[in-house]
Amino acid sequence: MSRSTLINWLLVLAVLVIAVVPLVFIGSETEFGGADGVAVEQIEADNPGYEPWFTPLFEPEAETASTLFALQAAIGAGFLGYLFGTLNTRRRLATPRPAPQPDDPT
Amino acid sequence: MHIAEGYLPPLHAAAWTVVAAPFVVHGARAVVRQVREDPDTKLLLGAAGAFTFVLSALKIPSVTGSSSHPTGTGLGAILFRPPVMALLGTIVLLFQALLIAHGGITTLGANAFSMAIVGPWVAYGVYRLAGRLGGGLSVGVFLAASLADLATYSTTSVQLALAYPDATSGVLGSVVKFGAIFSITQIPLAVCEGLLTVLIVRLLIKVSPDELRRLGVLRTPAPAQQEV
């Protein structure tokens, strides 16, 4: 494995460690609810009786929402993969071949 | 950093929309110009958009006990300058508002301002500054992406504080309160975002060095292979 590849994997590993450590040390009983929701609770605690003046036109249930979140990540990741493949192929085809072509007219 | 639908008073919601709209329109024109002037960079532009799409779907738990997500806007700001991300970031926010009920239409202006405008500009500023101070590409990218992430969440805290000043300590006290919810949670996630952005820049350098050279991200002349 080249040094560059090793560094890339170490970057991935570091991200995983940062994402998993809270789960291990704080414990899986914590719900890890979204910070967005915590802010909503704070607003409601400070302003008792606050009613949002507009509600989402379409609001999926929690389970469906997590599916849609996963879908969002999947679409993005799939597209990224496609782009990397295309860029890689384009670069490979653009690189001059090592040996001269036998039927090269020049 | 999403402010939930209906949780910004109408006046605030309207004001943030008015503030954000010109940036997004300008961003749309920047995207069109970029595609027309250098069609070869279209794929990289797509990568910048897709990166934001993926990262803003990743809910990562934080040491504070709640979870949040990176923004992914630093990459595009570094590659294509911030205006492009004003459009791409807003599209991602619109998707989440309409399909996942995350964020909202009434709060789209405020959310676009924090994630698609403030974040990218902070990323760009930090990136240029780091370059001028002689930091390497990776260091610049890391600082740019992670500080952009933090700046986005801090902006959200200020936006909510302006709408809901604390009864006794006022707006400032409220900034501290919402900052404790958003910005503190975000510190480890900002580090994640910085690392992931460095990773993708390294991968892009491998597959697309010529375009990155044209965009000014890589400065070395052509075939020299360089380690980052």
From TrEMBL, chain A:
Keywords: Cell membrane, Cobalamin biosynthesis, Cobalt, Cobalt transport, Ion transport, Membrane, Transmembrane, Transmembrane helix, Transport. It comes from the Bacteria. The keyword Transmembrane helix applies. Pfam families: CbiN. Its main location: membrane. Pathway: Cofactor biosynthesis; adenosylcobalamin biosynthesis. The chain crosses the membrane at residues 7-26, 65-84. InterPro entries: CbiN. GO terms for cellular component: plasma membrane. One of its GO terms (biological process) is cobalamin biosynthetic process. The keyword ATP-binding does not apply. It is found in: Cell membrane. It is a multi-pass membrane protein. One of its GO terms (molecular function) is cobalt ion transmembrane transporter activity. HAMAP family: CbiN. Part of the energy-coupling factor (ECF) transporter complex CbiMNOQ involved in cobalt import. Belongs to the CbiN family. Forms an energy-coupling factor (ECF) transporter complex composed of an ATP-binding protein (A component, CbiO), a transmembrane protein (T component, CbiQ) and 2 possible substrate-capture proteins (S components, CbiM and CbiN) of unknown stoichimetry. This is Cobalt transport protein CbiN. It comes from Pseudonocardia petroleophila. The gene is cbiN.
Automatic annotation (TrEMBL), chain B:
GO terms for cellular component: ATP-binding cassette (ABC) transporter complex. The chain crosses the membrane at residues 13-31, 80-101, 108-127, 133-153, 187-205. It holds the Pfam family CbiM. GO terms for molecular function: cobalt ion transmembrane transporter activity. It is a multi-pass membrane protein. One of its GO terms (biological process) is cobalamin biosynthetic process. It comes from the Bacteria. Part of the energy-coupling factor (ECF) transporter complex CbiMNOQ involved in cobalt import. Forms an energy-coupling factor (ECF) transporter complex composed of an ATP-binding protein (A component, CbiO), a transmembrane protein (T component, CbiQ) and 2 possible substrate-capture proteins (S components, CbiM and CbiN) of unknown stoichimetry. This is Cobalt transport protein CbiM. It comes from Pseudonocardia petroleophila.
